[in-house]
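FW: tagging you since you asked about this chain on Friday. Here's the raw sequence from the shared folder, copied in full. Didn't touch anything.
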Amino acid sequence: MRLEVIALVMLAGSVGAQVRSPVHLYVSNERSRDVSVIDIATNKVVARIPMPARPRGIQASPDGRKIYVALSDDAPTLTGTGDGIVAIDVATRKVSPRMSAGSDPEQFAVSKDGRTLYASNEDAGTMSAIDVATGKVRNTAIVGIEPEGVALSPDGSMVYVTAETSNSVSVIDAKTNKVVANMLVDARPRAAAFSPDGRWAYVTAEIGGTVNVVDTKAREVVATIDLPPGNVKPVGVVVSPDGKTVYTANGRTSSVSVIDATSRKLVATIPVGKRPWGIIVSADGRFLYTANGVSHDVSVVDTGTRKVVGTIKVGTAPWGLAFGR
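HL: got it, structure written out here
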């Protein structure tokens, strides 16, 4: 299968920058503490890159030449110990020294100019703005309790941070790193994704079993999309490049929900591997990928037929996904 497209980079729910001619899909494997590199032309793993600690959030630089990985907890290391973010040089597959990212970073977003990383600090209730050039935290903003998901608006002006325990989303001005709004959403929000025009944001609620639709101008929830009963627990979320479809990775139900963005109705459910969290879509919208944490694989979904057309074994407990060169 060959995908010669411009890919969107986003993690198990956040929208990232465009990468020209991606050739690899990078998968963070939480328990095997490595990153799998998949050749998307063949759907084969071509490399595994050891990580110095437990990897979760993963994003690409705007030019696709670096893959950033959020690390948590202490372990014997290659580049340092404990919490932080490292960068993989995609040309050499070398891992950089660890950047400071505050305590327990989980998810993060990359600024449009590639100079800043915005990371959630789950145990501290903060968001850290990291200067890529210095590898140090430049600013810290207080957000909700147990922040997790981080998404950057398409114009790069606003950062959304979901908080699992306070059931809230903090809106942060990317220039000032100040919180400008807080919104209540359904129980245990995990991730957020923007429509391509930035008009809407979609927030998954794992315990609520819903997707909240946020009017980004009014900064309020304007609709709630109920997913089917049966213990559906949405985690990752992504929007198709044309903005017409929203996809959620549904965790323990081993499925992806397909939502029509216009009607805000569920239109299909696609079975995938076991416990999908991370989710990403190609820029032409033809293929969807999920990181399946219990079956230890990545599902490749044809969005036209809404069927799995490939399954790729990766490391143990895959968590997030990012396209790069």
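FW: The longest strand covers residues 44-50.
HL: agreed, and DSSP finds no helices and 30 strands in the chain.
FW: great, closing this out.
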